[in-house]
Amino acid sequence: MKVVVQKFGGTCVESEPNQLLTAERIMEARDNGLYPVVVVSAMGREGQPYSTVELVKTVRSINPDIQPRELDLLMSCGEIISTVAMAHLLRTKGYETIALSGGQAGLVTDEYYGHANIVRIDPGLVLDALQDGYMVFVAGFQGNTEHHQITTLGAGGSDYTAVALTRIINETEKLPFGEDLVAEPLQVFKEVDGVMTANPETLRGIDGAAAQTIPQLTYDECVAMSRLGAEVLQQQAAEMARKHRIGLIVRNFRQSESPGTQVGAVTAPVREGRATAVADQPALLVFDLNTDSARLPLQIAERLGRARLTYYQARTPGAKARFAVRPLKYRDVGTIVRQVLNSRNVSAEIREGDLALVSVVGEALRQRLDEWDEQAERVLADAGIEIHGKGRGEISLSYLVPEQQRKSAVGLLHEALVL
């Protein structure tokens, strides 16, 4: 039995026309002899009744201070609704289907509400359903603790669900009755043709600027781009895919033959002198530690990581250590950061929203960061864009810039270093 995990984002199921297109992609897989395991996100985005954002507004309009356990219970409903709707749609088209919550599908998590980690998968119900010939639909973004409490996996958590299910199917050689099981590369469906060289929304309105589809990405590029703000995969999902060598393809759900972007399945070619992409992360929370202690920045970084926040530590001429923290949809990052600082009796001025992160990413940067840094700084300086901090990864360079200049910085770096 050849099984393929297909993940569909919220846009793919937000309306009846999009649901029908999504159903076509699922039926095509079945027509090609594959047995789909379909992971579905909540329907649509802010403003649409069953989106996670609107569900959260339902309770925060009463009082914004809701217990994390109850908030997770509520947020899990969006994916359950869309999963049942899609399973029902495919059943009306003549297929045997079953809809499962994340917990029913065997995703066991820790008890960190709002941003849980998957600790193991018990796929018995999924495997039994496949063996019986069912199309399996799994609600993304959620799991259950050992004590049967519902948790959510953080923004973009449906990606995490899909990668985890692909991993367990990869590791399962036979179905319960002995039939061989073969997993195909994970298919991630979005409303764009694949992973782009920059966020098309960021480039919108810049004369002559247009993002291009990236045919192939290495695992390291995928992880770096996800961490730095590109809409590739959720960071946890990208890291799990890299760790377990899970091949995947990002495709447009509107097209039957979309080539998409292959991640990890092949070695991505390095274009000499060209970066792979520019990523951006808007409206960060930023604070400085003015201390001579070498240990304090390490301790704060450890605590931010323990709070499951994505942070960027930047080098600056003035401050001893500057931290930029990514905002989150469903967690009050400002409050969490203040708690982290208070735990070490540290006072710091916190700035929210006026600085952004712009990053150049690609295998071409590996072991050549200094020369790439010179090029990027020259591009920004020539445009009068002030750099408020810099960071480095193995294949990435990041710059803190004023939020009002973020789009210009992305457009300039994209034109000069990527295209």
Distance from N terminus to C terminus (CA atoms, Å) equals 42 Å
- Biggest pleated-sheet summary: 9 strands, mixed
Anisotropy-based shape: globular
CATH class of the largest domain: Alpha Beta
Query: Helix coverage percent of residues?
Result: 25-40%
| Estimated structural class | alpha/beta
Question: Could you characterize the architecture of this molecule?
Answer:
- The structure is a single chain.
- By secondary structure, this protein is an alpha/beta fold.
- The strands form four sheets. Strands 1, 2, 3, 6, 9, 10, 11, 12 and 13 form a nine-stranded mixed sheet that branches. Strands 15-16-14-17-19-18 form a six-stranded antiparallel sheet. A two-stranded antiparallel ribbon has the order 4-5.
- The radius of gyration is 22 Å and the shape is globular.
- A hairpin with a 6-residue loop joins strand 15 and strand 16 (321-325).
- The protein has helices at 16-31, 52-60, 68-92, 124-131, 157-170, 200-203, 219-227, 235-243, 295-306, 333-343, 369-382, 406-418, and strands spanning 2-8, 34-40, 97-100, 107-109, 118-121, 135-139, 142-144, 150-152, 182-183, 186-190, 216-217, 248-252, 261-263, 277-289, 311-314, 321-325, 350-361, 390-392, 396-402.
- It folds into two domains: 2-191, Acetylglutamate kinase-like (Carbamate kinase, 3-Layer(aba) Sandwich); 277-418, VC0802-like.
- The mean pLDDT is 94.
